[in-house]
Amino acid sequence: MNFADLHLHTVFSDGTYTPLELISESEKVGLSAIAVVDHDTTSGIEPAIEIAKTKNIEVLPGIELSAEYEGLEIHILGYLIDYKHQGLVEKLAILKKNRIERIYKIVEKLKDIGITLDPQSVFDIAKQGTVGRLHIAKALVLEGKVHSLSEAFQKYLGDKCPAFCLGFRFSPREAIKLVKAVGGIPVLAHPYTLNNDALIPLFIDYGLMGLEVYYPEHSQSMINFYLNLARTHDLLVTGGSDFHGDAKPELKLGSLKVPYELVEKLKAAKEKLL
Ligand code: AMP
Ligand code: ZN
Ligand code: FE
Ligand code: FE
User: What is the DSSP string of 132-180?
Assistant: First the structure.
């Protein structure tokens, strides 16, 4: 049987693996297909697809869009998107700039509570990637201001913390519509983080087509619950590890594999959209 991991990040957002490293490692752990779904950017897709041409692995284009609904952070995955779509590329360029401005705001907030951090140190960590809180957390660890990434989020960067700054977020409706407008399949990422399953039917009304049922933090009972929900609403099922490389070392590549059959179902759904 062939396996896939449909939720991977690269250096083009807040992962630490280059597309080449990601593909080499994915092959080693026996994956036949991977989806590159960086936060708010498609920049890692083309290099990954090019590299995959010489390898025995398939790369599916994807994205993970950040959305917000009544204070809740919601991530919408877009699978099999037309990642070269001009309108999408332009929109994502604005988001990238927005994320840079947000770093300055967070640095200011940290300063207000007596923690100095050079914004350049954050940009140096992010390199070409869309910069975010994980890069700030890493900078705080490197500067010895906190002991761990999770401490950085708990004390400063998380929701309701003193240096929290939301930054630009789509509404779930906009994120779902954007994915569909570029020929993709919108899927709700890690539904447990919502902590509010009653919202899912609303997102289905907006055009949501799938649930990320298989996810490292989903217990067996959550998996069963979301499988049932997917069946009831005729939704696609996906799954992935949310691998970020060394940025989240507790999460190993190959720790979560889904049957390749789920990829075939995504492709069939896309065919129907065309
Ligand atoms: P951003 O898109 O800049 O808001 O940052 C989101 C990133 O921060 C995602 O990769 C999350 O997985 C990560 N993140 C959020 N909360 C935590 C946490 N408590 N510990 C580690 N990483 C986190
Ligand atoms: Zn991330
Ligand atoms: Fe996410
Ligand atoms: Fe993710």
Answer: -HHHHHHHHHHTTS-SSHHHHIIIIISTTSTT------B-HHHHHHHHH
pLDDT in tens, 21-68: 999 999 999 999 999 999 999 999 999 999 999 999 999 999 999 999
Cβ-contact 141, 156 below 8 angstroms? no
pTM recorded for the entire structure: 0.93
How do the residues of the chain divide into helix, strand and coil, expressed in percent and rounded to 5?
45, 20, 35
Beta bridge partners of residue 236, listed in sequence order = 210
User: Residue 178 corresponds to which amino acid?
Assistant: L
- 125 CA → ligand 4 middle, Å: 18
Q: What angle do CA 17, 106, 243 make, to 5 degrees?
A: 20
Dist. CA 206 → ligand 3 center (Å): 19
Residue nearest to atom 21 of ligand 1 (CA): 150
pLDDT at 274: 77
What is the per-residue pLDDT for 190? 98
In this structure, are residues 241 and 7 in contact, taking their beta carbons and an 8 Å threshold? yes
Residues 19, 133: Cα–Cα separation, whole Å: 21
Does residue 134's CB lie within 6 angstroms of at least one atom of ligand 1? Answer: yes
72-79 sheet: strands from edge to edge? 236-239, 210-214, 185-188, 72-79, 58-69, 33-36, 3-8, 258-259
State whether the beta carbon of 66 lies less than 6 angstroms from ligand 1: yes
pLDDT at 46: 98
Could you tell me the distance, in angstroms and rounded to a whole number, from the CA of residue 238 to the centre of ligand 3? Answer: 14
